[in-house]
Write a structure and sequence with these properties.
The chain is of the alpha+beta class. Helix content is about 55%, strand content about 10%. The protein folds into 2 domains: about 180 residues, Roll (C8orf32 fold), CATH 3.10.620; about 80 residues, Serine Threonine Protein Phosphatase 5, Tetratricopeptide repeat (Alpha Horseshoe), CATH 1.25.40.10. Helix 5 links the parallel strand 1 and strand 2. Belongs to the UPF0162 family.
Length: about 280
């Protein structure tokens, strides 16, 4: 089947089931907001080329873990993809075209490359929305193999996983049952949503409110009614002087989550938006 020459339409993505959201193409759609001239076919062909080069090696192996080891060696040793520790918070590490071009990224974006290549080779690699640091997992005969794409696909054992999760659980070390829940595969939609949240956070830190609003808007296109998308787009609109949009989004946020921990702060922002002059645009 020929690959599509264009990217999905944002308005159509909300109608798809979570795992029917095309992972690579939707990540490239996010990148196109920043790079309007981005050619998606270039990156589809890159994955296809990687897969064609690696297929004989992978198909010669029977064991899923061995197949995954071959994929990791190719991606991280031969091609040189690596975690960008020096510029971890550079937004380029969340735009997949930049990650392909520079062969540098953060855990989530490297996982997207790793998953796209593995799936092209019929190795069903899943993403894991682990707290703090995105991981990938592969079902094997004796359980689940969990790997860290930021560290060259290194496997991560249960004890280390519990240790990593503890600071994000209020200091509580997860038991085996909770760890199993945390390691549940993330849907394609959830993975792209995490990418958008990462970008939104980076842009908010730099007070780049138009880009905060854009990321929040894309969240709402992908999953209408997303609470943090409504709140953050409304707050960004307020800082940009779009008072009417701010009131609409923040009001809807409160109607959906009246008991939210930040409800009082959001109410104050609505009052501020009501006092602000309406910006014509």
């Amino acid at each position: 089947m020929d690959r599509p020459k264009t990217l999905p339409d944002w308005d159509a993505l909300a109608t798809l089931a979570d795992d029917d959201v095309p992972l690579l193409d939707t990540a490239l759609l996010v990148a196109r907001d920043e790079y309007p001239d981005l050619d998606p076919e270039l990156y589809r062909e890159r994955i296809a080329g990687y897969a064609a080069a690696l297929r004989p090696r992978v198909e010669a192996l029977e064991d899923p873990a061995a197949k995954m080891a071959a994929i990791n060696r190719y991606l991280f040793e031969e091609l040189g993809f690596a975690g960008d520790a020096d510029r971890y918070y550079d937004p380029r590490n969340s735009y997949l075209n930049d990650v392909f071009d520079r062969r540098r990224g953060i855990p989530l974006s490297l996982a997207m490359v790793q998953m796209s290549l593995a799936r092209a080779l019929d190795v069903p690699l899943d993403g894991v929305s682990f707290p703090g640091h995105f991981l990938v997992s592969l079902a094997v005969d004796d359980g689940v193999l969990v790997m860290d794409p930021f560290n060259r696909g290194r496997s991560v054992g249960a004890d280390e996983l519990k240790q990593r999760a503890t600071p994000h659980l209020g200091g509580q070390t997860p038991d085996d049952e909770l760890l199993f829940e945390i390691l549940a595969p993330a849907s394609n939609r959830a993975i792209v949503m995490r990418m958008l949240r990462n970008l939104k956070s980076l842009y908010a830190e730099g007070e780049r409110w138009e880009k905060v609003a854009r990321c929040a808007d894309r969240q709402l296109k992908l999953a209408p009614g997303t609470l943090d998308g409504l709140r953050d787009r409304g707050l960004a609109y307020l800082r940009l002087g779009h008072a009417a949009g701010a009131r609409e989004d923040l009001g809807r946020y409160l109607s959906l989550a009246p008991g939210a921990a930040d409800a009082d702060a959001v109410r104050n922002a609505i009052i501020e938006a009501g006092q602000a002059p309406v910006r014509l645009h």
